[in-house]
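Training component of the fellowship. As part of building independent skills, the fellow (R.M.) carried out the full modelling exercise for a liganded target. The chosen ligand was zinc ion. The inputs are recorded below so that the supervisory panel can assess the work.
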Amino acid sequence: MRLNADKIAEFIDSQIAVWPQAAGNFEALKGVRVKEVNLPGWTVKVQFNPARIVSSSAKVDAKSLKERKCFLCGANRPEVQEGIEWGGRYTVLINPFPIFPRHLTIPDNTHTDQLITDRIADMVRLASELEEYTVFYNGPRCGASAPDHMHFQAGNSDFLTLAPALEDAELKTVATDGDASLALVDSLPLKVFVIDTPADEPEAAERLFDRLYKAIPVPEGEKEPMMNLLCYPTPAGVRLVVIPRKRHRPSFYGTEGEGTMLLSPASVDMGGVFITPLEKDFNALDADLILKILDELCLSSAEINEIASNVK
Ligand SMILES: [Zn+2]
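Fellow's submitted model of the complex:
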């Protein structure tokens, strides 16, 4: 089934109307506190969102995953949760623990590992159909709370701040494929790759992504390079932002002890909205700390240029 923004808006409203828990969380979101923090070339937001404690403190080790019922499997989902079939192998659901005013989760129809291989074209198609949404992907150790069940998420694009910052940033072209291009951006505090493709050429984006993917080192014990992905429509087509990562959580991640913070940054944080489930962390998070987080979790200018030089 082909999606569009109106259909999705109707779907979200219909689920909220019959699902008190989700309705409560979407309603609570309207009252959450948000502050702005200015970084060089990029203004980010910090959101104090107590309901996200479930996700930020999620245990994602193999043993914990095995002992819980997978909340993305159709058989375990609440009866009230309905879905829209998409693309032959995905189901569009509302996220009952939202960060965005409109927040979707889009799992694969089978219980299969969170891996991005062979799914970029799907992601680009999804972004171009969803229109006003940014589709995102959290690597299994980059914020995914269900690393054992492949899923995308999507949220209304006007919420994130990375896209406008990228519009003003210098793009250095690394490779092209027809009308699609791969570029790097090393002038912002967050170092990223950007793939731009005409909306009707999702395969070109996938080919460029594969070339980049092969150039990014895979940490020992991981199945794919660590990354977050954001994908959204632009006036010229669709843009895929690839954010390589080198660490799962900051060195000061934790709930106990002085200086610890409960932050588990994922695509949304990298997209410009840092989520803090604890009020003390919301108050403490300033530009210096955010730059420290980016420094610990993401790549340096030298590292991203090194990867670019290895793209074949
Ligand atoms: Zn599952």
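The panel noted the following from the submitted structure. The chain has a mean pLDDT of 94. The pocket of zinc ion is lined by residues 70, 72-73, 111, 149 (CB under 6 Å).
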